[in-house]
Amino acid sequence: MIKKVYVDESKIHGKGLFAKKIIKQGETIGRIKPNPSEEDGLHVLWVSESEGHKVKGPLKYINHSPKPNACYYVDLTVVALQDIDPGDEITHNYGEDWQVE
User: Fold this and answer.
1) Do 22 and 85 form a contact (C-beta atoms < 8 A)?
2) What's the confidence (pLDDT) of residue 2?
3) Can you give the pTM of this predicted structure?
4) Cα–Cα distance between 29 and 36 in angstroms, integer?
5) DSSP strand pairing (89-92 vs 63-64)
């Protein structure tokens, strides 16, 4: 994963995750290590209403976009929804209820 991405300042919010090189549609960007969390909080990914995981490492910097270019799967992989060019920020749709605090 480190060869594909880097963390930098984001125009969306705080820090973001960016592509170092082209990431092709369907390509796995990374995988979150299972780290169960029963409470919501900063960098907690909810894969269902009852299953949350505290995200550590570079993947925690994936910001929200209503038009994402990546998604998380239930198996905790992050996959490109479209080709992502070098320098593009990698984004995920957190859902309609999400907002920056």
Assistant:
1) yes
2) 67
3) 0.88
4) 21
5) parallel
**C-alpha 26: how far from chain center:** 14
Instruction: List residues bridging with 66 in a β-sheet.
Output: none
Number of C-alpha atoms within 13 angstroms, CB side, residue 8? 11
Give me the tens of pLDDT residue by residue for the chain, a chain 101 residues long. Answer: 668 999 999 999 999 999 999 999 999 999 999 899 989 888 888 888 888 999 999 999 999 999 999 999 989 999 999 999 999 999 999 876 655 54
In a domain, 69, yes or no: yes
User: Cα–Cα distance between 66 and 92 in angstroms, integer?
Assistant: 8
Domain containing residue 82: CATH number: 2.170.270.10
Residue 55, burial from CB neighbour count under 10 angstroms (0-12, 13-18, 19+):
buried
Residue 99 within a domain = no
Number of domains in the chain: 1
